Amino acid sequence: MLTNAPRGTKDILPEQIQSWLYIENKIREICQNYGYAEIRTPTFEHTELFHRSIGEGTDVVDKEMYTFEDRGGRSITLRPENTASVVRAYLQNKLYADGGLVKLFYIGSMFRYDRPQAGRLREFHQFGVEALGEENPAVDAEIILLAWDFLKSLGLDDLNLKINTVGCPKCRPVYRQKLQHYFTDNIDELCDDCKRRIDKNPMRILDCKVDGAKEFMEDAPKIETCLCDDCREHFAKVQEFLTAAGVKFELDGRLVRGLDYYTKTAFEIQYLPLGAQSAVAGGGRYDGLIEEIGGNPTPGIGFAAGIERILIALEKQNLLQTKIKSLDAFIVTSGSKAEVFGFNLLTKLRRENISATMDFAKRSMKAQMKQAAKSGAKFALIIGEDEIKNSTVTVKNLETSEQENIPADKIADSLKS
Questions:
Q1: Is a pLDDT exceeding 70 seen at residue 63?
Q2: In the structure, what pLDDT confidence band is assigned to residue 133 with cuts at 50, 70 and 90?
Q3: Fewest C-beta atoms under 10 Å: which of 1, 219, 286, 382?
Q4: What residues are paired with 129 via a beta bridge?
Q5: DSSP output for 272-335
Q6: Residue 407 and residue 405: Cα distance in Å, rounded?
Q7: What is the mean pLDDT of residues 259-280?
C-alpha cells in the first residue's frame, strides 16, 4: 500500500526524535573529547568497493546488499556498512597527506536486506569510529574505550565487553586449515550455509546463528594455538592497556565478527538484557583493508554501534529522552487586523530566537486558547482591538493563569527575562 513505508523501514516521528538527538549529541560530545572529527560519505558506492572490502562468501555480500544498475550501466550498492566508504574517502581525498593518525567518526543510515527484527531493520542507523594510520595496540584500546565510555555515558548498565584476536595473514592460514579439517569431520552437523563456508571462509562458521549453539562447536580449534609472535604480543598489549584503564573484559575465542577485513583485535560490547540481540557495538582492527581497496599498506581500526538497538536498551532502563522542548509563546488573535499584527510579532520573536507559533485557521479566541494550552507553550500572547489600539499585548502565563499587558516592542525582552 502507498500509505505504508517499505518493509524493514520506519518513520522516526516528532515524539521520538528527541531520543535520537540526545544520542547524537552524546556521540559528538565524546568524539570531540577523544579528538575524532565527523565525516559524511555517500549513501551508495560502487558495488566493487564492498565486494573487495567485506569479502565474497559473507552473508552481507551474498545475501543482504541492496545492489542495482544505474542508467549508465554501473553496479551501485546502498552502503551495508560504512568502514569501506570511510577508507575510500580517506584515499580519494588524501587525508593521509599530513601523516600520522587520522581519527574520524560518522552517523548515518545503512542498508541490508535481512529479516526485520527488533533493533535491526533493512534501513538502520549506525554510529561508527575509524582510526587510520597507526598500528600501536594503544589505539585499539582507545577505540574500545571510546565505545565503552559512550555507552556508559548514556547510563546503560549490564554491559559486557568481549575481546579476541583473529590473527593476521601470517598466522591465519594455519588456523584456517585446522578449522577446515575439524568442520569437514563434522560436516553432517553443519547448516547448508556453513557447509559452503568450509572452503570459502571457515572462520565464519564460528559465529553462525544456526550452528553456534551446537555442542560440537565447543571443541572447535582455538586461534591462540596458531598465533604468530606479533599477533600474540599485540593482543597482550591491548589487554594490558584496557586493564590499566580499569575496564573489565572477557576473552572469547569464538568472537570473529562478520566481515572479512578484520585482523588481530576484534571486540564486541553487549547489553545483556537484550538477550539474543545483545550486541550494541563491535569492531576491530583491519590492517589490510586500505591496501585491498587500492592504497598503500596502512593500519586501521574502528567500530560501529547500532542506534536502534541502543534505543531499545535505553527504553529497558527508562532512560529515553522523550520530552520535546516546549514553545515559548502561542499568539492568539481576534480579527484580520490583529492577525496581521500578530504575524508581524511572530516574525520578530523568531528572529530574537524565541520559539513561537500562532493559529492560521481563523478559529475563535476560545478555540485558540485551547490550542495554545495543547501546544505546550509557556505563554499565550493575546491580541485584540484594545491591544492594537494601545500597541500592547496581553501576556498570559498558561501555567499560573496570571496575565499582564506589555508594550508590543518590549515583548521579546519580557519573554527572555
A1: yes
A2: very high
A3: 1
A4: 105, 303
A5: GGGGGG-EEEEEEE-TTHHHHHTS-S--EEEEEEEHHHHHHHHHHTT----PPPPPSEEEEE-S
A6: 7
A7: 87
